[in-house]
Amino acid sequence: MKPLKYQTQDGKSVIMDMERHDFQLDDLVERIKDNDHRLVALQVPEGLKMQALEMMDSIEGDSEAKVVLAADPCYGACDLVHDKMRMMGVELVAHMGHSAMNIDSGMPTHFIPVTYDGDPEIDPVIPILARHKAIAEARLAEASTPFDLSEDEAKDRFLDAVGRVAPLSGTKLGLVGSIQHLHLLEEYKERFENAGFQVEIPTGGARLTFPGQVLGCNYSGDDPSIGHYIFLGSGDFHPIGLVMHTGKPLALLDPYTGEASELSFDRIERILRQRMGLIFSVDEAKSFGILIGEKPGQMRRNLAIRMKRLLEKHGRKGYLLALDHVGPELIDFYPVDAFVNTACPRIAIDDAVKYAKPLITPFELEVALGEKQWENGYQFDEIP
Ligand code: SF4
User: Fold this and answer.
1) What is the pLDDT of residue 9?
2) Of 232, 237, 179, whose CA–CA distance to 208 is shortest?
């Protein structure tokens, strides 16, 4: 396969050497043959859509099945194609590049792992990690005193990613990565240990399949013994969420390019400033659209209904709006003052500027209504 240039979710151009990727189709073909499936749906992430037709040829060439590409955008395993494919007579969904979540789409689904054999040197990232370890040690040394802050001090703290640090009991290096690089983690653990770091590969909750895995909406592997992070992967989509969630310093090592970098706290502070502005901007809002995601792994109906009740308690109006895809063209025209998003958490965080009206998270609504306090720091909207 030819090298592929594509844009990551944060808009960076990445060139992927497709020969170094392993698309593990053999188990899928075996399953199709064993079950004599005749119609299979293939779902691939956006970054691999260019390769989809070649994969369809390969599956059809090795089995009796016909393959239909689920060509709508797909950004995660939260977005499994479901009943529409059953209506089409599809017997099996083959989902590529993500791993199983704690959801049932109602369709038999085969997850196809994709791995990349990148092998970046660790030397360029060591000075960054050494600095981050020193930050973690200094934080651990500070006595964690209970907050007794004025409203203004509390708001300052809210903007301060450092102030938001989850409780610390150690300064270990947390080693995480995006899914196509997770097979490298054990080897890199050893390399970083040899370089003098105490390393942990964190294991998260039911939404995550593998040790060291992170999603844009779930960082449940974080634990107090971890003082800073290294992320093996490309782009800063996952790192932004991890730092917003934990407040811990994070270095990046990109297996595609070998580049080492870090996610600056300034960047996180800018995002938190924007979030704070949005919270202030809904102060006088009387009516809200409450977005419910229809995708199986994004649907948070109970949370949406709780937000509606909360708005009613505070004399405001909330309208429940269910959508498969969320975009400005689909909601901006509703005559409400603002929106609360319970679909993919990253829609509010990463895309807020695209919307004409404030688009906030459930936590931010709770802060705006005075139900949650500034001084407890920013709470990332996580789907468990
Ligand atoms: S809900 Fe959003 S962040 Fe989470 S897996 Fe789906 S697309 Fe990614």
Assistant:
1) 47
2) 179
pLDDT tens column, 328-361 = 999 999 999 999 999 999 999 999 999 999 999 9
Higher pLDDT, 371 or 105: 371
- Strands in 199-200's sheet, in edge-to-edge order, are 199-200, 172-177, 226-232, 250-253, 260-263
Non-local (6+) Cβ contacts of 77 within 8 A are 95, 98, 99, 100, 101, 103, 111, 297
Expressed in angstroms and rounded, the spacing between residue 215 Cα and the centre of ligand 1 is: 7
Report pLDDT digits (tens) over 148-202: 667 676 666 655 554 566 678 999 999 999 999 999 999 999 999 999 999 999 9
Going by CA atoms, what residue is nearest to atom 3 of ligand 1? 216
* Nearest-atom index, ligand 1, CA of 216: 3
Q: Which of 9, 215, 245, 295 to mutate to test ligand 1, by most ligand atoms within 8 A of the CB atom?
A: 215
Ligand 1 atom closest to 77 (CA): 5
All structural domains of the chain, each given as residue ranges with its CATH number in brackets, are 4-116 (3.40.50.11840), 123-263 (3.40.50.11850), 269-376 (3.40.50.11860)
Atom of ligand 1 nearest to the CA of 343: 1
Can you tell me the distance from the alpha carbon of 250 to that of 265, in angstroms, rounded to the nearest whole number?
9
Strand partners, 227: none
pTM over 0.85: yes
The per-residue pLDDT for range 35-68, each reduced to its tens digit, is: 999 999 999 998 889 889 999 999 999 999 999 9
Ligand 1 lining (C-beta closer than 6 Å): 75-76, 78, 215-217, 297-298, 344, 346, 383
Do 96 and 73 touch, CB atoms closer than 8 A? no
